[in-house]
Amino acid sequence: MTSHLSPDVAPAERGIRLPRPDLDRLDEITAALAKTAAQYDRTGEFPHEAIRLLHDAGLLTATVEQKWGGPGVSFADLARILLALGRGDTSVALIACMTLVPHALESGRPWPEALYRRILAESVERPTLLNHARAEPDTGRGGGTVARRTADGWAITGRKRFVTGAEGLSYFLLWATTDEVVPQSVVFVVPGGSPGIEILPTWRQLGMRATVSHEVVFTDVRVAAEDLIRFGDPGAPAPDADPGADQDHANSVLLISAALYLGAARAAQDFVHHTGVTKVPAHLGRPIAAGERFRQVAGEIEVLLSTAEQLVFGIAGRLDRGEVVSANEALAAKVAVIRNLTRAVEAAVRLLGSSALSQDNPLERIFRDVQAAGVHAPQEDPALVGIGTAALNDYLRQLG
């Protein structure tokens, strides 16, 4: 993807030096997140301490490109990071992912240079979380939020839902339609503390409770004239993926994002293994893992998860080598990965029985959390329609 910055401007000249994450510490970070995951799940509070831990480890800016003074980690390393975070706390991993992805896709969209530099400068000093605010209670994907021209910028009014990390966001990437003669779909970069922003405590979901994905009301919120990202042709509908990003590339990044739920499934597997080798019923006189059925289900879980990992890291490796991964390839892999990790956790629950659903162990929370893996756009049903349509069209072309 092409940068809109002059290539001869070195990162040092921009005055920004972001830390390179120490990927050798990922196991340590996983363990630290796992210690507080149950607490955040019970309270539904924003995980401030966990996010601070990720910032201090340089993980929240791991995907900032080198041209900006960032580490610009590979896609394979991004998958490793998300898998490790998801293995510790799925909610924290999703909040981090929502910041890592915009940085990873920055080259494919026209971010104003001064604005992005300001965000990165803040990221050096403290956790600076970003996330898109697009979905709306009444209109679904958007369109009900309107940006009105003012003398010095814009005033935005609307309501968004499912805004992951809402309480802790430094910037909302707010989707809105301008009131220009020819309306345009625009993403406004809105500071989280702006007057006119109200966070409604509506997030009461089965799982992923610490993501605090509340509804947010924007009432006449003022934004500077230059703090926006335009995309598409005037009057054209907004794209389904992130603005300005190549569709194939964006879908590949969405697949890699699924690694955080894969990490959660690996944590479920860890609990199954621990239970299997430490639980010794008196009537058996040996660990339950010695039983054939236990070992068979453990094998099924490993097949499902290792296959999912091969898909994620295989496509990540292709991206790192500069290969083109089509949108349908990425979508097909995403469908398979989510199916596999969900089935693996379900198998773990069935294997351990009623004890698996006790709040005294992490498997109960993980089971609830992974139910959210399939709700992220693009969801399975429309993905399958697109994949199936493309396959049928390919067949028709072969017939001539």
Concise structural overview:
The protein contains eleven helices and eight strands.
Keywords:
12% strand, single chain, 3 domains, Butyryl-Coa Dehydrogenase, subunit A, domain 1, 400 residues, 8-stranded mixed β-sheet, Butyryl-CoA Dehydrogenase, subunit A, domain 3, Butyryl-CoA Dehydrogenase, subunit A, domain 2, globular
Report on the structure:
By secondary structure, the protein is α+β, with helices and mostly antiparallel strands. The protein has three domains: 11-127, Orthogonal Bundle (Butyryl-Coa Dehydrogenase, subunit A, domain 1); 133-230, Butyryl-CoA Dehydrogenase, subunit A, domain 2 (Beta Barrel), CATH 2.40.110.10; 247-399, Butyryl-CoA Dehydrogenase, subunit A, domain 3 (Up-down Bundle), CATH 1.20.140. It contains eleven helices and eight strands. The protein has helices at residues 26-43, 48-56, 75-88, 90-104, 113-125, 247-257, 259-278, 292-320, 327-352, 362-370, 380-399; strands at residues 130-133, 146-149, 153-160, 171-178, 185-191, 197-200, 215-224, 228-230. Strands 1, 2, 3, 4, 5, 6, 7 and 8 form an eight-stranded mixed beta sheet that branches. α4 packs antiparallel against α7 and α9 (327-352) runs antiparallel to α10 (362-370). It starts with 25 loop residues before the first helix and ends with a helix. Mean pLDDT is 91; it is low at 1-13.
Strands, helices and their partners?
Layout: H1 26-43, H2 48-56, H3 75-88, H4 90-104, H5 113-125, E1 130-133, E2 146-149, E3 153-160, E4 171-178, E5 185-191, E6 197-200, E7 215-224, E8 228-230, H6 247-257, H7 259-278, H8 292-320, H9 327-352, H10 362-370, H11 380-399
Parallel strand pairs: 1-4, 2-4
Antiparallel strand pairs: 2-3, 3-7, 4-5, 5-8, 6-7
